[in-house]
Specification:
Length: 256
């Protein structure tokens, strides 16, 4: 009887472990994963000032997605800690999401150890998102790994999303020999918003102009107002206030 009881106990334990293992496998299979691509550039032209990524444009989408069960990995052209635009750390730019970011030691540690862009593969992700800040105007606009990655995501029917200045990463992206943005409805940081910052002579190019030059159907809301567009797989937001709207559109596409 004791042997039978032990056999039943062992069988039951093994069965429970197998069931739990299966559940973990299923969970891994259904969990969507999004890649965040962040700038590595920290110089604001020849001003002597620093730039980088804008915290709110990173934090708001990050928490919007991760709170819905989306897994997120972060990559940068150089790997490691991406530069943060000092102005985005100013109390005047603070939001609930940036305050959460400031206290999120797990995320801050994750940012110190970002993947190198050359080492990532679109096959490992369901969508890609580019936070803004002025940095992308210099590095991601010309980065060959970034260009190839966006092309791969798009060609494999996966959402590609951008906010504010990060649409600069689309500047040299082509699909079948044509600029990806050609004929696409999109938005991005406007000329008037850049003028308001006094940086039209500092940035390497005006984003609104560059997008239109490549054939985009550009539109915008009033300066600093939330505005996001979706044209097929392409999702774009105009400015920092639009970052959460972009994340919500990513979520909608991932549910399809």
């Amino acid at each position: 009887m004791i042997k039978i009881a032990l056999l039943v106990l062992i069988t039951s334990t093994v069965s429970c472990k197998i069931t739990q293992y299966k559940k973990e496998l299923i969970k891994k299979d259904v969990m969507k994963k999004v890649l965040f691509v962040v700038t590595s550039h920290d110089q604001l032209g020849n001003t002597g000032e620093k730039t980088g990524f804008w915290i709110e444009e990173f934090a708001a989408p990050y928490y919007e997605l991760i709170d819905k069960g989306i897994a997120i990995e972060i990559a940068t052209p150089l790997g490691g800690q991406p530069p943060i635009d000092p102005k985005s750390e100013d109390p005047s730019a603070a939001t609930a999401d940036t305050k959460r970011f400031d206290k999120d030691n797990e995320l801050l540690s994750k940012l110190k150890n970002t993947l190198k862009l050359a080492d990532v593969n679109q096959e490992d992700y369901d969508a890609v998102f580019y936070p803004g800040g002025h940095g992308p105007l210099w590095d991601l606009a010309e980065d060959k790994n970034s260009i190839a990655l966006i092309e791969a995501f798009y060609a494999n029917n996966k959402p590609v999303a951008f906010v504010c200045h990060s649409q600069a990463a689309l500047k040299n992206v082509k699909i079948n020999g044509e600029f990806l943005v050609k004929g696409k409805k999109l938005t991005g940081f406007s000329n008037t918003e850049e003028e308001a910052l006094g940086l039209t002579k500092v940035v390497p190019f005006l984003l609104e102009d560059a997008l239109q030059t490549n054939g985009a159907i550009y539109s915008k809301e009033s300066d600093w107002q939330p505005y996001a567009l979706e044209d097929g797989l392409l999702i774009t937001g105009q400015n920092p206030a639009s970052s959460k709207l972009v994340a919500q559109k990513i979520l909608e596409q991932l549910k399809k």
